Structures are given as C-alpha cells and as structure tokens.
User: Fold this.
Amino acid sequence: MNCGNRHIAIVGAGASGLFLAKKLSEDKRFRITVFEKNRQIGAKLRASGGGKANIFNREIRPEHYNKPAFLAKLLQKYAPERLEQQFADWGLVTVSDSEGRVYPASQFSQTVVDVLNDLPENRVEIVTEHNIQHLEYQNGKWYVDDFPTAFDAIALASGSPAGMIPKNQRNYNSYLQRILLKTRTLEASLSGFKLAQYPKSLSGCRTKAIVSLYQSNKLIHKEFGEVTFKDEGVSGIVVMNLSAYYRRLPSRENCRLEFNLIYWDERFDAVDYLAKYGNAVGLLHPKLAALHQAKPFPVTALAFPIEDTYPMESAQVCHGGIDLSEVDENFAAKNHPGMYILGEMLDVDGVCGGYNLFFAFASAAVAAEHLLGTSDGR
Ligand SMILES: Cc1cc2nc3c(=O)[nH]c(=O)nc-3n(C[C@H](O)[C@H](O)[C@H](O)COP(=O)(O)OP(=O)(O)OC[C@H]3O[C@@H](n4cnc5c(N)ncnc54)[C@H](O)[C@@H]3O)c2cc1C
Assistant:
C-alpha cells in the first residue's frame, strides 16, 4: 500500500457493502477489502423484488419507516434523485412504475450486482467465503480475524437474518459479541401473518381486498392490493406492509386483520346483492363464496385475530437491530473510532416498494462521502 493511502475493511458484500466499495474505489487514495461469508456476492440483492430488484422508490416518505425522524434527516442529505443520478453515472439504466418503484431496465437484479461489482482490481479486493468472526481495535487500527492488514476504518454491512433458513440465522452477526453496541431484538418484518380461527379451506385463494390492521377498535393501518390465503394465514405485499406496522406496536394484544372483499366500489350494496341471489357465488372468489355459504360473514369485514407474523425465514427484513443512538448522521459509530454501520444491521425498516434497498444504498453513500471528505455537513 502506498504511503498516504487509507485501507478500509467492509464486512459483507451485499447492497450497502458493495455500494460503499464502489463509491470509495473512485478515489485513488483508498484501498478496500470486502469480506463476504458466501461464495457469491450480493445474494439478497439478487433475490430482491422477485429477482428484478426494486432498488429504490422515487416517492420515499419518512413515515413509511419505523424511524421517520432519522429518515427525514437522511432524505435531506441524500434524496432518491441523488441515488438515481449515482446509478446513472455508473451506467445502470433504470425504469420506474406509476408508484415510483425503480428497477433496473434489464428487469434483472443481477445487473445491479454486476454494476456494483465493476470495481478496479488494483484497489478493491473481495475475499469470499470468509465469515468474519472477530474484530479488534488496537492503536488506531482495526483488525479482522487473523487477516494481516491493519485497517484505517471498518464498515459493518453484514445485513440481517431475514429470509434465511433457521440453521443460518443462528449466530448471525456473532462477530459483534465483543463490540459493545446497543441492540434491539430482531423480529421478522415484511412477512405474512398467521391467523387464528382461520379456515384452511381458503388456502390457495388469491384475491384483491382492502386489508385493515386493527388493535381492539383502533385502525392501525389499511392498504389495498392482492392477498394470497395460505394454509395458516395470509401473505402478499399489502399484508407484508401491514406486518411492518404491526411490528411497531408497543404491545401486540388484540390485533386482527379485516378484509373488505368489495374493494372496487364502496357504493356497491353487498347486502342487497346477497339478499337477491342468496349466495356470493357471482361476487367472490369461489373459495370465499364457499366459506360464505358454509358460515356467512360480512363481506366488507371478514376478520381474523392475528396469532403472529410468519417466522424470520419468510421475512424480507428485520425489525430491530443496532440502535440508531450508536451512529451519527454520517453512519459513523459514536463509540468506536473509524467504524461505520450500514443498512439493515441498523434498527431501520421500511415498507415494500424499494424502501429497504434505498436505506442500504443511502447509508453507504453518506458514509462514503464522510470517508471521502466530501460530505456537505448538512
Ligand atoms: C426475498 C427478499 C426480497 C426483497 N426485495 C426487496 C426489494 O425489492 N426492494 C427493497 O428495497 N428491499 C428488498 N428486500 C430487502 C433488501 O434486500 C435488504 O434490506 C438489503 O439487501 C439489505 O442490505 P444490506 O447491505 O444491509 O445487507 P445484505 O444485502 O443482506 O448484505 C449483507 C452481506 O453480508 C454478508 N455477511 C453477513 N455476515 C457476514 C460475516 N460475518 N462475514 C462476512 N460477510 C458476512 C452476507 O452474506 C451478505 O452478503 C428483500 C429482501 C428479501 C429477503
């Protein structure tokens, strides 16, 4: 390494780690070593958006995250337009839909990984199949495992156990055990719900509905979209979004989901229809019509108590993680010099629609600007 160079370690070659490596590699003063436990890099990014990767949203709103105040500040520093420009500068052509969701024009998540992984070999090394077990800070330098390099800074970008099989969830991020960081318990978010008093006969039914999350008689959140009824409960993007609001409740007692199956016109008189035809055959999905026949229910308010969300392996993100009080506005750790904490490791989670990848990329972008000395101090 040349005199005057800074050598940065990045733990995790996922969305935030690769973004940081790419950004820092544009400056010749930096050398970067990325450690990745898997053989392949960017696994979750590749799985994102059903393989298409919804990489951000043009209309990001802070209130769709669990920490709106922190996000409002971040968005002032790093708005979606800046991320869009950054990807364009790196040659990634994107398209967006009517709800502001942005995808690579290739409609293939691997394109995003390939763009991020287009790195100068002389300045960036990616060490795959290296599961970091241990970090140590000594005399102003960071050391990882028995790797010989003394790093000037380290970025923790190792994500969360969301979406992983239970065997791999165990000991996730255990390398942090000896680093004192305030952490909130990890729970599944953006997942389906297990429902109580739920008839298995609905399994396989897919329909549109306005779905509301209630706690006792209080409406917590409602959304419209497609829902899929499964063996033990429901899933679908609407339902996953409701799970994010469910996770944010201080207590989860007496929660229920309510499905308004007459989603297309609030003036439609379902009572009149049912009185006229005597059944819901021409009105609802056949499985719902059969259920209605066997045990009539209000078609604008089919309700089931919530048992829990589906487990971590079917979640897209984690609720919880490293407390935001541990980092400053540049994602630098307050109590560990030269350490940055990025992406899903932090206690930030957003709804579906590009919110979580946006946070991973934006946190990396802001940390990169701080390391490069180009932050504008906002
Ligand atoms: C099925 C699915 C679909 C999703 N779809 C979307 C979507 O369309 N839009 C969206 O915004 N969000 C989506 N998300 C969420 C999004 O993918 C994550 O929030 C995002 O990838 C988090 O980025 P990250 O950099 O924090 O972590 P990751 O991208 O998970 O990267 C962490 C990396 O660190 C590595 N690692 C972990 N521990 C170690 C260690 N000890 N040593 C070395 N390496 C380690 C991991 O192997 C991984 O490669 C989806 C998630 C899932 C599971």
